[in-house]
Amino acid sequence: MEEKKIIPQHIAIIMDGNRRWAKERGLPTIEGHRKVADEILEPLIEHAANKGVKYITLWAWSTENWNRSSAEVSAIMKLFHHIIQNRWGRLHEKGVKIRVIGDISKFSPDIKDAITKVIEQTKNNTRITAIFALNYGGRDEVIRAIKKIKNFKEMTTETFGNALDTGGIPDPELIIRTGGEQRLSGFLLWQSEYSELSFPSWYMPEFIPKKLDELIEEFHSRQRRFGK
Ligand code: FPP
């Protein structure tokens, strides 16, 4: 029974409910995204690190999110740029290594440059790896991985896994989707094979560190059998 208390080494989060959170409070839509970016993520990543989590993946932008209104897309792009330039440096000071999954070629040059810089700047940090999923889609990731593979006959689950954006990162033991929707929407399509799933009804802007403790407690109460 000792195994049940092991802290998941990789927790992945589908950050949902930002607009509902803002709407229910009579705030502009962007306020939900801003609150998450400015107030929620840094304490959450730090708290996860303090608990011994080694990887935390955060889905910030999906391949489908470009279909939102142009006003929302441009407001979020501005927010991304601001956060990457002004907040990710602070994560570096806290020993966080930053990785990005997804196809970042679609972002503007200033966002791409800021991402490239911070990945380079934080590459030797070891406290925790924060993986931001940006323009990420599970099917898109699988297709891009397939295009990278040269020798199909020699392919194994391991070589395929290494061709994915998450190559070298262990699969998440726990995937959390805030906001009450009970689906993965293609998040970590390959990597989620044995993930425990958690669908709290509260919204991402409410994700204070204590809530992570509660979800990990709940995770501990589950039996992971891996098909055995
Ligand atoms: C999902 O909630 C949220 C998004 C699509 C955007 C998330 C972006 C951030 C939190 C900014 C983080 C910044 C960085 C650089 C990581 P929703 O808008 O779908 O809300 P809803 O379900 O209520 O409609």
Written account of the structure:
The protein is α/β, with parallel strands linked by helices. It has eight helices and six strands. The chain has one domain (10-219): Decaprenyl diphosphate synthase-like (Undecaprenyl pyrophosphate synthetase). 43% of the residues lie in helices and 13% in strands. It has a six-stranded parallel β-sheet with strand order 3-4-2-1-5-6. Helix 5 links the parallel strand 3 and strand 4 (128-133). The mean pLDDT is 95. The structure holds farnesyl diphosphate (FPP).
Distance between the termini: 16 Å
* Percentage of β-strand residues: 5-15%
The chain-level structural class is alpha/beta
CATH topology: Undecaprenyl pyrophosphate synthetase
The radius of gyration is: 17 Å
Distinct ligands, ions and cofactors found in the model: farnesyl diphosphate
In total, the number of strands is 6
| Order of strands in the sheet with most strands | 3-4-2-1-5-6
What brief labels describe this structure?
single chain, 228 residues, alpha/beta, Undecaprenyl pyrophosphate synthetase, 8 helices, 6 strands, 13% strand, binds farnesyl diphosphate
Q: Helices and strands in order, then pairings?
A:
Blueprint: E1 10-14, H1 18-24, H2 29-51, E2 55-59, H3 70-86, H4 88-93, E3 96-101, H5 109-122, E4 128-133, H6 138-148, H7 157-163, E5 174-177, E6 196-198, H8 209-220
Parallel strand pairs: 1-2, 1-5, 2-4, 3-4, 5-6
Helix pairs in contact: 1-2, 2-3, 3-5
The protein binds farnesyl diphosphate (FPP).
Farnesyl diphosphate is lined by residues 15-20, 33, 36-37, 58, 60, 65, 76, 79-80, 83-84, 132, 179.
